[in-house]
Amino acid sequence: MATQQLVAEINAWDVAQRQFDLAAERLQLPAGLRKVLREPKRALIVHFPVKMDDGEVEVFTGYRVQHNLSRGPAKGGIRYHQNVDLDEVKALAMWMTWKCAVVGVPFGGGKGGVVVDPSKLSLRELEGLTRRFATELSILIGPERDIPAPDVNTNAQTMAWIMDTYSMNVGYTVPAVVTGKPIPLGGSEGRTEATAQGVVYTIQDAARHLGMDLRKCRVAVQGFGNVGGISARLMAKEGATVIAVSDVRGAIYRPEGLDIEAVSAHSRATGSVVGFPGSRDISNAELLELDTDILIPAAMENQITAANAGRIQARLIAEGANGPTTPEADEILYANGKFLIPDILCNAGGVTVSYFEWVQNLDRDLWSIGHVNDKLHEIMTRAFASTLEASLREQVNMRTAAYLLAVQRVADATSVRGLYP
What we know:
Elements: H1 2-9, H2 12-27, H3 31-38, E1 42-51, E2 57-68, E3 74-81, H4 86-102, E4 108-115, H5 123-137, E5 146-150, H6 156-170, H7 191-210, E6 218-222, H8 226-237, E7 241-247, E8 250-253, H9 260-270, E9 280-282, H10 284-288, E10 294-297, E11 316-318, H11 327-335, E12 339-341, H12 343-346, H13 349-363, H14 369-394, H15 398-417
Parallel strand pairs: 3-4, 3-5, 6-7, 6-10, 10-11, 11-12
Antiparallel strand pairs: 1-2, 2-4, 7-8, 8-9
Helix pairs in contact: 2-4, 2-15, 4-15, 5-6, 7-8, 7-13, 7-14, 13-14, 14-15
């Protein structure tokens, strides 16, 4: 209970700014430039009505934040969650800026969210909420301005509704206004798996660096959604033994290994991984501290903190989620010899393939899955190598190294553009 309370008190925006401050100090950025990069360019807060199935009107609160646009239009997902707030969205937008920069994608950082528990809405209510929110965002979004994508509790159907709403308002079809769309509407092959695929590509690179044989590694995955579930399946395909997975209801553990396809079927049938036959139910907190070789936190922010970092046993930690580790925990993990692949590198496969989708839409082109994955592999491997080189050269952990690269690239773009007017 004490650990849960501590996690709840951690402010994601404070964490994001402290991570930036560490990099800015080491890079010796000028004070004025630090002030510019430390805050979002703009933040939109909207309160919008939606007519529910029973005829009543409910008012929902939504956000869209653009952190920095020096390197290109804003890019970032939209999440539907009851705990969304402005500070969380600001942090996620800043992380998107660094994520795009570290892999060399020409976007700035953006993020959006609506305060809602989508499980309590019907499909019609969800569509109504999405279309109204898209209309409220129309003053910001556009294929050359701000391109949303799926995030927590949103998916390809959500993006289809946003694209259609935007297109109806302008009078013609605009596929490039969002990414993560269904294939028939201009979505990219490989987009659904992209984030998890990027996670696995970076794990492969890290394992080679550390001399780890993935076929002999045990893996624990926190989160069994699009990122965690697919990461677990891909790691099993690599020959690793996945010993634990979890979702919002809890975790399951089987030291001999889990059949991920069977776990997926059980989750679809029951709504949770909990209770999977032959496994032992444990908590999400217990999963993080299991005796395992590789840990993939792919759930929400602030899961690994100063309170539990010292008990993390995994040698390799791959951040499938955004912001799962606090700065204090980073120091503990690094001091304990843990190798952590930071979120802005590890889970950048999603925004990278979103960039591919955007390019395909603008060119009215369609790439094969092989072409998409080859280019994704090339970009992720190059970004990992650059980050590892910086880590070894500067004698810092991988997160600091990734931030040094990303912040410098954004700072250079911001500086050379100058101040207007």
